[in-house]
Amino acid sequence: MDAQFKKGVLELCVLSQLKEQDRYGYELTERISKELSVTAGTLYLILKRLKDSGYVETYLMESTGGPARKYYHLTEQGENYRKNQKQEWLAFVEKAGKLI
Amino acid sequence: MDAQFKKGVLELCVLSQLKEQDRYGYELTERISKELSVTAGTLYLILKRLKDSGYVETYLMESTGGPARKYYHLTEQGENYRKNQKQEWLAFVEKAGKLI
DNA sequence: CTTACTATATTGCATTACATAATAGTATAT
DNA sequence: ATATACTATTATGTAATGCAATATAGTAAG
User: What are B16-49's pLDDT values in tens digits?
Assistant: First the structure.
């Protein structure tokens, strides 16, 4: 897969996943990498960015096996951002489609 | 427009434009920026990349007003690359769509 | 008990593509 | 002459990802 295509879209994928329900980092890695082959390092960087921007909040919960899971929750601000990014993405795909 | 979305796709847009017919740099800038807001500098960088990779060839032709135009022609190798990139792009959009 | 493996989180360095801005040359119109 | 439109090019910075390494906790195997 062309790595460049992912730039910017992975963030939207994360936001969309978190809209459904809170999820922890490793879980997001598993889910998203099933479709788009992404590494953990990339995902955690995106999550840090989103947290620094106030788009997600985090809390810890114990795991059945392994270290505690850090769950990510979409804030209201994050949901607004998600909606906006989704619209931008759809518009972008349409415009690009005209040229391709 | 989110600049990140463009990563990798601009190149495909250029290739697609050149599949129809040979075009010169300034012309490509005009056409593509109508849809996707791209500057000349970015376009010429992409064109240089494509030339260095053997995906396009160039030749000069006089202009009616202004400096000579440098036309870009898609090579056979470039056309194969374009087909491949187009498929990858479509597949990517579909996969991302599942997550969004 | 110790070794190995899975689950989970984090961080550092390199690469790549795009943005922005500046430079430069030619022709035409005023 | 001067401004303006057309055309091409290059330099510097930023941002997002890839890859690889580190760290910790639990569980299973020997």
Answer: 999 999 999 999 999 999 999 999 999 999 999 9
* Test mutation, A1, A6, A7, chain B, max B CBs within 10 A: A7
**What is the CATH classification number for the domain harbouring B12?**
1.10.10.10
Contact B76/B17 with Cβ under 8 angstroms? no
Total tally of structural domains belonging to chain B: 1
**C-alpha to C-alpha distance for A12 and B4, rounded to whole angstroms:** 11
The pTM assigned to this predicted structure is: 0.92
- Domain with B58, as residue range(s), is 3-99
Nearest residue in B to A36, CA atom: B95
